From TrEMBL:
Keyword field: Transferase
One Pfam family here: Acetyltransf_3
Organism name: Clostridium cellulovorans (strain ATCC 35296 / DSM 3052 / OCM 3 / 743B)
The name this protein goes by in its record: GCN5-related N-acetyltransferase
Record flagged with keyword Nuclease: no
The keyword Disulfide bond is annotated on this UniProt entry: no
Coiled coil ranges: none
Amino acid sequence: MYFGEKIRLRAYEKEDAELAHKYFTTPETRKNIDIGIPYPISLREEEKWLETAVRDGECYTFAIETLEDSKYIGGCGINNIDRKNSVATVGISIGDEEYKGKGYGTDAMKTLVNFIFNEVNVNKVKLNVFSFNERAIKSYEKVGFKKEGVLRQEIYRFGKYYDVIVMGILKEEFLNK
């Protein structure tokens, strides 16, 4: 487990499946994490995903749990590692509405980035975020991510096109913060 100030990152357990399904199938969550059509998934698909969540040196998936009451509130992880160029791509989602906008996601991302730079040993962590997800953008900036580019009108939501913002943080920036 890896500890932040408010959260711990731990392995997923079978018992997380029902809450994970609840968290990750809400329209609010799907619109922020799916680049394609935000299509719902079944509980069985969620259980299967949890069974196969791997830590094979390229992907690391963590459940986010509160320190205060050990409540599972979301997930984060490394989606891809480019070993040649020393770059990890990450993602995060706080699924429990009660914990959104209260610093839990920022703490989880900070803890994940710390894990990546100190344990996985890459030089850069990057992510993509939809331009309409202003709360996430502010959270990533608090961790130290910087906007690196904009993929113009890359995603179609709510009847119009939105940008995808590419953000990144370098090891030296994070460790010297």
